[in-house]
């Protein structure tokens, strides 16, 4: 997952943000559910404590980490530990977790079939091209008994050892996987992107990760900023009873609190 230098140039827009101070928290997040949770619940809680929360929306998984590394964001909220670990390794960044908030079960969706039993020889499978989500997708397909893979921490289609249906795997940016439903037989879609695309995971997914999914989404900061008072205040607010109740009420099982 090597990031081209061009990606850094795209951070010019981030540099237009108002500068942070001791009572202002600038956080980057993907739209659903992360930004919704921040705007509707966390922001009012922090306001009562004298903090101003400024939420910046991102539609990818690269720029918010780069902006956090560069100091243009105080924190971000969109990713799990496997992705964070792989990103740091590939990009020489120093992003660390502070608060584990929720799990978004990975799901399998289709406009062409109603059950994985209907998969035919040569059908096309759309998956994310980042190491963490690719691994989740392949593990879910293996758990369903459709393929077998090597026993590795991170997996790509190259690590498939048995593929009796000769499924064709197409890798793409995570944000693009909902669009693949028009062409692929099935697509593995992160719940934040599924919700943003109008899908109802509990109803629409052919297969969904269980509540035992290890992929908790974290608030993350640049290493060394974990103990800043405003980050401690952010963590306390996002791990509140109000946030837990909001997640359960709004997403009805499609997003599961981790605390």
TrEMBL record:
InterPro entries: Lipoprotein_NlpA. It comes from Campylobacter suis. This is Methionine-binding lipoprotein MetQ. Keywords: Lipoprotein, Membrane, Palmitate, Signal. Gene3D superfamilies: Periplasmic binding protein-like II. The gene is metQ_1. It is found in: Membrane. The lineage of its organism: Bacteria, Pseudomonadati, Campylobacterota, Epsilonproteobacteria, Campylobacterales. Coiled coil: none annotated. Belongs to the NlpA lipoprotein family. It comes from the Bacteria. It is a lipid-anchor. Its main location: membrane.
């Amino acid at each position: 997952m090597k990031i081209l230098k061009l990606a850094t140039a795209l951070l010019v827009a981030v540099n237009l943000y108002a500068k942070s101070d001791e009572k202002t928290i600038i956080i980057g997040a993907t739209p659903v559910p992360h930004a919704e949770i921040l705007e509707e619940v966390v922001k009012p809680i922090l306001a009562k404590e004298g903090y101003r929360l400024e939420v910046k929306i991102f539609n990818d998984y690269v720029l918010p980490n780069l902006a956090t590394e560069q100091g243009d964001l105080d924190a971000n909220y969109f990713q799990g530990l496997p992705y964070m670990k792989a990103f740091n390794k590939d990009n020489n960044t120093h992003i660390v977790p502070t608060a584990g908030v929720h799990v978004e079960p990975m799901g399998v969706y289709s406009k062409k079939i109603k059950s994985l039993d209907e998969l035919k020889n040569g059908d096309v499978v759309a998956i994310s091209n980042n190491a963490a989500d690719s691994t989740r997708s392949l593990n879910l397909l293996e758990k369903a008994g459709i393929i077998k893979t090597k026993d590795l921490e991170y997996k790509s289609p190259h690590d498939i050892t048995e593929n009796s249906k000769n499924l064709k795997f197409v890798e793409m940016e995570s944000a693009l996987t909902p669009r693949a439903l028009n062409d692929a037989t099935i697509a593995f879609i992160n719940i934040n992107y599924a919700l943003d695309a109008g899908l109802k995971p509990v109803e629409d997914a052919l297969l969904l990760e269980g509540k035992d999914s290890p992929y908790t989404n974290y608030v993350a900061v640049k290493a060394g900023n974990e103990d800043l008072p405003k980050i401690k205040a952010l963590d306390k607010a996002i791990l509140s009873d109000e946030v837990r109740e909001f997640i359960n009420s709004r997403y009805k099982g499609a997003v599961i609190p981790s605390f």
